[in-house]
C-alpha cells in the first residue's frame, strides 16, 4: 500500500497555523483549500482504519475542550473515563465531552445538524436544555449549509455558536459538521477542535469594544485567517495520522489470517474502527471470546507488533493501533 503523502510545497506552506495566518487572506484561503482538498482525497478512499483515525482525532479534540473548561484530564484519562465505565453508568462531565466529539464521528454527516442531534451534543458539552436555541441553531446552520460560501460557512459556524452563548468547542464542532456536509463525506472528521481554540485565542484578545469600523474589519479579517489557518493545519495533521495508522493497520491485517481464536476477525475489525479496546470487557466485544482469551489475543498481537498497549498498566490494559 503506498504511503499517503502531502505535496512538499503544501507542507512548507503550513509550518504552523500562526505563521500561515500572518499571510494575506487570499494566500491563506488558497493554502487551506489545497489542504482540505488533499484531506478530501484521503477521506474518499474510505480506508478500513478510518474509524480509528476519526476516534483518535475526537479524543484529541476532547482533551483540548476539557482543558479549555479548566479541567485537568489528559487524553489517557479521558480514554479511561469512557472505556472503563460500565455500560449505562455516567462517564462524568469530561467523559461526556469525549462522547460529544465521538458523536461527530459516529453519526452520518447528514444527521449531525438535526434538532435532535444538536440537543444531544449540546447536553454532552454541558449546556442546559434550551429548545428555542436548538430550533434557531438548526435553522441558522441549515441556511449556512445551503447558501454560504466555504469561508462564510467556516466563520458563520463560530458566530452561530457565540450568538447563542456557546463556546469555541461548539463552534468547531459545527464547522466540522458543515464541512463534511459540504464535501459529501459519509462521516465528519474532527479537525478544528484541537486547533481553533488556540488560533482564536490571539484573535479574540485583540478585539476592542471601542474599535473603529476599519479596525473592526481588520480584526474580523484576522479572525477569518486564524480559522482558515487552523483548518489547514488540522487537515494536514489528519492526513499524517491516516498515514501513520495505515502503516500500523497493514501489520494488523498481515497477521490477521494467522489468528485462530474464535471471534478474532470481529476484534480485528473493531481495532480498525475504534480508538482503543480494553481487554477485560469481552462481554462488550464478542460473546465467543472470554476475557482470558481476549487478553491472550491482544498480548499475541502486541508481540507480533500489530497493535500497541496504550495504558502502561498491568491491569485494565487498553489496546489499539
Describe this structure in words.
- With 321 residues, the chain is an all-alpha fold.
- The protein folds into two domains: 8-247, no CATH class; 259-320, Arc Repressor Mutant, subunit A, CATH 1.10.10.
- Helix content is 65%, strand content 2%.
- The protein has helices at residues 8-13, 17-21, 25-45, 50-68, 75-83, 92-106, 115-124, 131-147, 150-163, 168-183, 196-205, 213-255, 264-273, 291-303, and strands at 277-278, 308-309, 318-320.
- Strands 1-3-2 form a three-stranded antiparallel sheet.
- A hairpin with an 8-residue loop joins strand 2 (308-309) and strand 3 (318-320).
- Helix 4 (50-68) runs antiparallel to helix 6 (92-106).
- The chain is globular and about 70 Å long.
- It starts with 7 loop residues before the first helix and ends with a strand.
- Mean pLDDT is 89; it is low at 205-210.
Quick take:
With 321 residues, the chain is mainly alpha-helical. The chain has helices at 8-13, 17-21, 25-45, 50-68, 75-83, 92-106, 115-124, 131-147, 150-163, 168-183, 196-205, 213-255, 264-273, 291-303; strands spanning 277-278, 308-309, 318-320.
Amino acid at each position: 500500500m503506498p504511503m499517503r503523502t502531502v505535496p512538499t510545497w503544501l507542507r512548507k506552506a503550513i509550518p504552523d497555523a500562526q505563521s500561515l495566518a500572518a499571510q494575506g487572506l487570499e494566500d491563506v484561503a488558497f493554502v487551506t483549500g489545497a489542504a482540505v482538498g488533499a484531506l478530501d482525497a484521503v477521506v474518499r478512499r474510505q480506508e478500513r482504519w478510518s474509524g480509528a483515525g476519526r476516534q483518535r482525532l475526537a479524543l484529541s479534540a476532547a482533551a483540548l475542550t476539557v482543558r479549555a473548561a479548566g479541567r485537568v484530564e489528559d487524553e489517557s484519562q479521558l480514554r479511561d473515563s469512557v472505556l472503563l465505565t460500565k455500560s449505562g453508568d455516567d462517564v462524568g462531565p469530561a467523559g461526556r465531552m469525549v462522547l460529544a466529539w465521538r458523536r461527530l464521528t459516529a453519526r452520518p454527516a447528514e444527521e449531525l445538524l438535526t434538532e435532535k442531534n444538536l440537543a444531544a451534543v449540546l447536553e454532552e458539552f454541558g449546556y442546559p436544555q434550551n429548545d428555542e436555541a436548538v430550533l434557531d441553531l438548526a435553522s441558522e446552520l441549515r441556511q449556512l449549509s445551503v447558501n454560504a460560501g466555504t469561508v462564510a460557512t467556516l466563520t458563520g459556524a463560530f458566530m452561530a455558536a457565540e450568538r447563542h452563548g456557546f463556546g469555541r468547542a461548539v463552534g468547531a464542532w459545527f464547522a466540522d459538521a458543515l464541512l463534511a456536509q459540504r464535501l459529501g463525506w459519509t462521516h465528519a472528521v474532527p479537525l478544528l477542535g484541537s486547533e481553533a481554540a488556540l488560533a482564536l485565542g490571539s484573535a479574540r484578545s485583540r478585539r476592542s469594544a471601542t474599535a473603529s469600523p476599519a479596525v473592526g474589519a481588520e480584526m474580523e479579517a484576522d479572525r477569518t485567517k486564524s480559522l482558515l489557518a487552523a483548518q489547514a493545519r488540522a487537515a494536514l495533521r489528519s492526513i499524517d495520522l491516516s498515514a501513520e495508522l495505515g502503516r500500523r493497520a497493514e501489520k494488523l491485517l498481515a497477521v490477521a489470517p494467522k489468528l485462530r481464536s474464535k471471534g478474532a476477525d470481529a476484534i480485528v475489525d473493531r481495532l480498525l474502527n475504534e480508538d482503543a479496546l480494553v481487554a477485560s470487557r469481552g462481554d462488550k466485544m464478542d460473546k465467543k471470546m472470554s476475557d482470558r482469551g481476549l487478553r491472550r489475543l491482544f498480548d499475541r498481537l502486541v508481540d507480533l507488533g500489530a497493535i500497541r498497549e496504550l495504558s502502561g498498566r498491568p491491569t485494565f490494559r487498553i489496546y489499539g493501533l
